[in-house]
Amino acid sequence: MNNHLRALRADRGWSQQHLGDLLEVSRQSVNAIETGRYDPSLPLAFKIAELFDLAIEDVFTSPSKEQ
Amino acid sequence: MRFSPAQRRYNRRVILLALIYVTLLFPAVYLLDRHLVSGPVAYIVGILPAFPVIGFFVAIGACLVEETDEYQRMLLVRQSLIATGVAMTGATMWGFLEGFELLPHLVGYAWPILWFAGLGVGGCINKLIERREA
């Protein structure tokens, strides 16, 4: 699933480790989500969106709308 | 690399279990090889080293339950599934060949050992996937 997490994180000048600390997950988890290697659960997706004060669909692209 | 609290607990448990295993295995081998114990006591002495090995499986299960980082949990699940596949494949193939008397009998505890080796294979596959797709 594509997402804008890397850009959102870069806008704030945060490292993957710092974002991971804020989300209470590992740096590897942040990297896996950013690269689309891992799709987060709904609770974690909500947590990410709320951290950036955005709606989920502003962070993650719906797979049905990717084409 | 930072370990999560669940991974740190897992590491501590595995080290403790390994120490218990060694502590129990050597006396068991010594006593049973020399037939110094017999009857029910021999069974008790013989089964004792199995418990820390069982504990390794419990430790992995506890890590899966306690891990709050869902991605790390997924990696451990994949690693365990690969280990299970390796061990079951080995047991099935050896079992058939042994059944046809093409291979000698292999003690049952070889399969947990192969399972732990499979965990190593799973860890390598996890690393390869991470590097390929990073």
From TrEMBL, chain A:
Residue ranges annotated for the HTH cro/C1-type domain, each copy included: 5-59
InterPro entries per record: Cro/C1-type_HTH, Lambda_DNA-bd_dom_sf
This protein's UniProt keywords: DNA-binding
Pfam families, sorted: HTH_3
Superkingdom of the organism of origin: Bacteria
UniProt cross-references to SUPFAM superfamilies, sorted A to Z: lambda repressor-like DNA-binding domains (SSF47413)
Name of this chain's protein: Helix-turn-helix transcriptional regulator
Organism: Sphingomonas longa
From TrEMBL, chain B:
Protein name per the record: Uncharacterized protein
Keywords noted in UniProt: Membrane, Transmembrane, Transmembrane helix
TM region positions: 41-64, 76-97, 109-129
